[in-house]
Design a protein that fits this description.
- The structure is a single chain.
- The C terminus is likely disordered.
- The protein starts with 6 loop residues before the first strand and ends in a 5-residue tail after the last helix.
- The protein folds into two domains: 77 residues, Phosphorylase Kinase, domain 1; 140 residues, ATP-grasp fold, B domain (D-amino Acid Aminotransferase, Chain A, domain 1), CATH 3.30.470.20.
- The protein contains seven helices and 14 strands.
- It is α+β, with helices and mostly antiparallel strands.
- Strands 8, 9, 10, 11, 12, 13 and 14 form a seven-stranded antiparallel sheet that branches. Strands 1-2-3-7-6 form a five-stranded antiparallel sheet. A two-stranded antiparallel sheet has the order 4-5.
Length: 252
């Protein structure tokens, strides 16, 4: 884009710009990768392109099964048009298998199936390291109302059911994932919709046959082949057709 656009927000992996019409934003996917609250950083050529494409694919399908989200359409390799929402300051994590912080925190073996899908809430604050919070905290500090928490949990479980099936069909186990929600206002009334992105940056995805990691843990744990793994996820989902140049590092 040659025109100067007003930047609304810049996060670790995305930038939000003012959208072409009121109530819209442009979400730009960066190649920056961060881990451990941005203590570890790198630029992974083509990551933003792949995540844009995977997130478009998933959000479109979630919309079609009635999980309303902020995605309107993909604009180009790195950008999508989204609805402007008031972000709820929570990360909602759904876990199916023990991995990452829950394994450390509760002394579980990584890879151990959980008794059932578990939903956790984390308060979005980089300075505090996104601490885990309870529903008590959420309602006491007015981050979300009880009804909104119920809506987020119901949507999170629907997303989990759908994604577990989607990935399972292409030989991938959905270990866990993080999503965010936002409020859309219609007059005095607001409703909660899914926001942010769903990509290998925000999901733990393991090859169902080998348990090989196909997600951001490859970056966190210095396993290498990060872009190759993200590309493999896109390939299995059948959305690689437009992206051959990315793999060769040809897209900037």
């Amino acid at each position: 884009m040659t025109t100067r656009r007003k930047k609304i927000y810049e996060g670790k992996a995305k930038i939000l710009y003012e959208g072409p019409e009121p109530g819209t934003l442009i979400q730009y996917f960066k190649d920056d990768a961060t881990a451990f609250n941005a203590q570890k950083k790198a630029v992974l050529e083509g990551k933003g392109v792949i995540n844009n494409r995977i997130s478009e694919y998933i959000m479109t399908r979630l919309n079609s099964i009635g999980v309303q989200n902020h995605f309107i359409r993909r604009l180009n390799l790195r950008e999508q048009l989204i609805k402007e929402v008031e972000i709820v300051p929570l990360e909602v994590v759904v876990r199916n298998i023990a991995a990452g912080s829950i394994a450390t925190r509760l002394g579980l073996t990584e890879g151990q199936p959980l008794p059932r899908s578990i939903i956790e809430f984390y308060y979005k604050d980089d300075k505090l390291g996104d601490p885990m919070v309870s529903e008590e905290h959420i309602t006491a500090f007015n981050w979300a109302a009880t009804q909104e928490i119920d809506d987020m949990m119901a949507m999170a479980l629907r997303v989990n059911d759908y994604l577990s099936g989607l990935f399972s069909g292409v030989g991938i186990t959905l270990v866990d994932f993080k999503i965010e929600f936002g409020r859309i206002y219609e007059g005095d009334f607001s409703r909660i919709i899914l926001a942010d992105e769903i990509s290998p940056d925000s999901c733990r995805l393991w090859d169902a046959a080998t348990n090989e990691k196909l997600d951001k843990d490859r970056f966190r744990r210095d396993l290498g082949n990060v872009i190759e793994s993200y590309t493999e996820v896109a390939r299995r989902l059948g959305i690689m057709k437009e992206m051959p140049t990315v793999i060769q590092g040809g897209v900037h």
